[in-house]
Structures are given as structure tokens and as C-alpha cells.
């Protein structure tokens, strides 16, 4: 069987009056359009490299709804996905706290993230 692969490149450009940065995400796809590998880089940092999963959410102000691009490679293990989702929930809780200054709402999501960690087996018996 011949492996046919394709590359999808996503370029995000963020700018303000003082600076512009470009974030590049490259996704290699198999013959069924499933991600084989993903890499990212940014024009203003030396960080970047291979990743197994990514979640990108964007707000469409005109339509007043969010758009999502959730990708993971075929070799991302179930336990890694659970940990990734858990850390994403914790990050969203932190974003609510910082961006909205809503401690109560942030704590609610943090509590859910803790419950998720217990139910998914990430945390064992720590209540």
C-alpha cells in the first residue's frame, strides 16, 4: 500500500502597531486526511516543533459564534488525550480568571477540571 500524504499549512498573523508575528502550523495528512504529524513555529520565538494535538478556537464576531479546529495525530494515545483535555480545561479556567476577572466562574470550571481528572483516571483517589 502506497502512503499518500498531503501538507496543510495554517498561517496566523497577529499584529499591533508595534509588532507583527506569524504563527505557522503544518499538518501532514495520510490518504484518509488524518493527521500523521503536526509542527508549529512562530516568527518571533525559537520555540516550536512537533506536537501531537492542537485545539484552535476563533470567535466570529459577525455570526456571534465560535469556530473550532481540533486535530490530533494518529499516534496520540488515549491517556495523552485525556491529559491534554484536562490541561486545556485548566487553561480555560485561568483565562476566565485573567480576562473576565470572574473568580467564581473560573473556580467552577477549575472544579469541573478536577472532577474530569478524577473520572478520567489522571488523578487517582485525590479528592
Description:
By secondary structure, the chain is an alpha+beta fold. The chain has 2 domains: 74 residues, no CATH class; 51 residues. It has 2 helices and 6 strands. A 4-stranded antiparallel beta sheet has the order 1-2-3-4, with no helix packed on it. A two-stranded antiparallel sheet has the order 5-6. A hairpin with a 5-residue loop joins strand 3 and strand 4.
Short description:
With 127 residues, the protein is of the alpha+beta class. The chain has helices at 78-100, 103-120, and strands spanning 6-15, 20-29, 35-42, 48-51, 53-60, 65-72. The protein folds into two domains: 1-74, no CATH class; 77-127.
Please give the number of β-strands. Answer: 6
Question: What assembly state would you assign to the polypeptide chains in this entry?
Answer: single chain
- The backbone outline, from C-alpha atoms, is globular
Any idea what the radius of gyration is? 18 Å
Taken as a percent bin, the fraction of beta residues is: 35-45%
What pattern of helices and strands is seen along the backbone? Answer: EEEEEEHH
How many helical elements?
2
Spans of 5+ residues with little confidence (pLDDT < 50)?
none
Strand order across the biggest sheet?
1-2-3-4
